[in-house]
Amino acid sequence: MALGIDVGGTKILGIKYIDGKILREWNFKTVDGEVKCILQKIMKESGEEVIGIGAPCYIRDGVCIKAPHIRELTGKKLDEIGNAKFMNDCTAMAYGEYHLRGEKHDPLLLIALGTGVGSGLIIQGKPYIGKGSAMEIGHIKIYSDRRCECGKIGCFETITGGKYLNTEKMYMRVREGDEKALKFFENYGKILARGIAPAIQLLDPEIVVIGGSISQAYDYFMPPLIEELEKLLSYITPDDIIFERAKSPKSGAIGAALIAERDLL
Ligand SMILES: [Zn+2]
Question: Is there a cis peptide before residue 127, judged by omega within 30 degrees of 0?
């Protein structure tokens, strides 16, 4: 049994997870300045000793180098928060999605389309993080002159992240059949393909899972995305890849619990 916590930009979810079952759940709103207290409260209440925490931050040598959406964590030594295994939220989500699919699709590439854009990779049954900051697909520089939160210009997430686009409003309109919104998601799929294609070309994944809040519009942007991948990939065809939406909004917390329990990082 382990406790898994997913720290999101808007909410914090904690779960006690054992043998495929959630025994107990905690839900909090994310309030910058109170995250440490919330995490410690959940950890204490759970009584668990094996704890995994996924957070939207870049971690190196146990320090959160930067958490663009939760300033409180930036620069923090994570063991000051508690005795837990900290990891990037997309890494946790990728492992949770891998687990929820029976741990059989490998490599699994997760793309998380939220406020920013992140990704996670499961390869040979384990999460891959490089020296700690791998898979930051959102910060690959790609045809944009916008400045990103990381300080550099032209990052992929400046043209695909919810922070820079009005995806929520467009999603409401596209469901009503609005032509402009349909065009918006068609274009969105094509732009996404330009960022995802290099990752697919390098990693040759068996499955690509699309998660994050923008994935609610999956049905609208995926057909143009796959069509565009056809043009952008060599020796790999999209037909040989499984594309799916994330299975659960709890996969980040599930993955964090399992990564801690199995000591995978
Ligand atoms: Zn960036």
Answer: no
Interval between CA 72 and ligand 1 midpoint (Å): 19
Give percent above pLDDT 90 in the chain. 89
pLDDT digits (tens, 9 = 90+) for 137-168: 999 998 789 999 889 999 999 999 999 999 99
Q: Which fold has domain 103-245?
A: Nucleotidyltransferase; domain 5 (3.30.420)
Residues less than 5 Å from ion ligand 1, measured at CB: 139, 148, 150, 155
pTM (predicted TM-score):
0.96
Contact between residue 4 and residue 89 where contact means Cβ atoms under 8 Å apart: no
Q: What is the mean pLDDT of the chain?
A: 95
pLDDT of residue 92: 98
168 vs 115: CA distance, rounded Å? 11
Q: What is the whole-number distance in angstroms between the Cα of residue 19 and the centre of ligand 1?
A: 38
3-class SS of residue 27: strand
Q: How many angstroms separate the alpha carbon of residue 121 from the centre of ligand 1? A: 19
Residues of the chain with pLDDT under 50: none
CATH superfamily of the domain spanning 2-92+250-261? ATPase, nucleotide binding domain (3.30.420.40)
Same fold, 2-92+250-261 and 103-245: yes
146 Cα to the center of ligand 1, angstroms? 10
Residue ranges per domain, the chain? 2-92+250-261, 103-245
Position 132 scores a pLDDT of 87
Report the separation in Å between the CA atom of 161 and the middle of ligand 1, taken as the mean of its atom positions.
11
SS3 for 14? strand
Token pair belonging to 201 = 């070309």
